[in-house]
Amino acid sequence: MKKKFSHLTENGDPTMVDVSIKNVSNRTAIAQATVILSIEIIDQLKNNEIHTKKGPVFQTAILAGIMAAKKTSDLIPLCHPLGLDKCSIDIHINAANEVIILCTAKNSGKTGVEMEALTGASVAALTIYDMCKGFSHNIIINDIRLLEKTGGKSDFKTT
After folding, report:
1. Dihedral over Cα of 153, 123, 91, 62: its sign
2. What is the distance between the alpha carbons of residues 139 and 121, in angstroms, rounded to a whole number?
3. What are the pLDDT digits (tens) for 83-96?
4. Which residue has better confidence, 4 or 149?
5. Which residues 6+ apart lie within 8 Å of 95 measured at CB?
6. Candidates 13, 18, 85, 130; catalytic one
7. Quick one: pLDDT at residue 52?
């Protein structure tokens, strides 16, 4: 079977996917974003969470990511509005001194939560950028990707 874009009609016009005939299932998605900061900023984050005028960096990024995941359908035009049953953000610094953001989204529904997890991780990364740019604009956000999804007609896990 030839693959096709799910959000296009036969004529190539944008459309929202019809999920009315799908069964409700438990769905989970985990997305990741990586933020590369200067060693000066990393050292401060490792030793004691940086508190800026906007608040503590990681705690503020966690809240922003969760809020964004809940608003995904307002940001991505053809996403279905979903009620999330759970959304969590974990932020840590790995051995390579990169900030790793993991966003987990869960719901019971007719469509997946991949976009919610990706949006949550992305906005958390952008929030870290915003809060750390006073130290340096030499900040890189990369590797925003889906790590895993379960539920629906197929599961996915990066290898």
Report:
1. negative
2. 16
3. 999 999 999 999 99
4. 149
5. none
6. 130
7. 64
In SS3 terms, 14-66 reads as ECCCCCCCCCCEEEEEEEEEEEECCHHHHHHHHHCCCEECCEEHHHHHHHHHH
Active site residue 130: yes
What does the alpha-carbon distance between residue 12 and residue 73 come to, in Å, rounded to a whole number?
Answer: 21
- Look at residue 62 in the predicted model and tell me its pLDDT: 97
The CATH H-level (homologous superfamily) assignment of domain 28-150 is Molybdopterin cofactor biosynthesis C (MoaC) domain (3.30.70.640)
Report whether 118 contacts 67 (CB < 8 A): no
Q: What are 12's two structure tokens?
A: 């190539």
Q: pLDDT of 110-155, one tens digit each?
A: 999 999 999 999 999 999 999 999 888 999 999 999 999 999 889 9
Which residue shows structure tokens 């030839």? 2
127 conformational bin, left if phi > 0, alpha if psi -120 to 50, beta if neither? alpha
Domain positions in the chain: 28-150
